[in-house]
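Extended Data, panel c. Modelled sequence:
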Amino acid sequence: MRRRSPATYPAAQSCSPPWPAGGALTDSKGRRVSFENCLVILTSNAGAPEMTQARKQVGFNRPTTIGKVQLRELAIDALERQFSPEFLGRLDETIVFNELDLKSAQQIAQRQLTELAARARRRGMKVAFTPAVAKWIASKGYSPDYGARELRRVIQREVETPLSRRMIGRAKGEEGLLRVRVESEGLAIELED
């Protein structure tokens, strides 16, 4: 039977984890896990609704992004509302990341396309993407409200699925480079010798 992680229980976020000074946890069955040489990273979307709301303020000079100071204040306020002071007091550091922008989304898309090309190469298929592909994917998969979450789905829907169909439908012995590029109606995949 698979054990459920304590972090997946809703009540776990309201209690303080029993991390003793000795740096180890022991469960109810006596199994001990050492945290002596570990770095524990916790992530949260606390404050995300407030950040979205702050970005949508009314006026002619409304910002498309929030300043670093305001972003940190919103995040810390939300953490203090969501978690107990005892829990927050056990954290050594709170890091607030900057908002993603379209340029960052393009870099993420480019990295994911590079990884896709490497996976395809391991399966005997050569794939290359023009620089415009990452930009196109970022424009379809990025939004200020949701960040880059949709990028992966856009790549799956618009790149991986057509590439898989092309791979399955390939004539025996058909080889060459599959170049993915942007056309007016979307992405196109062409075989180059």
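The two ends are 52 Å apart (CA to CA). This feature is highlighted in the accompanying rendering.
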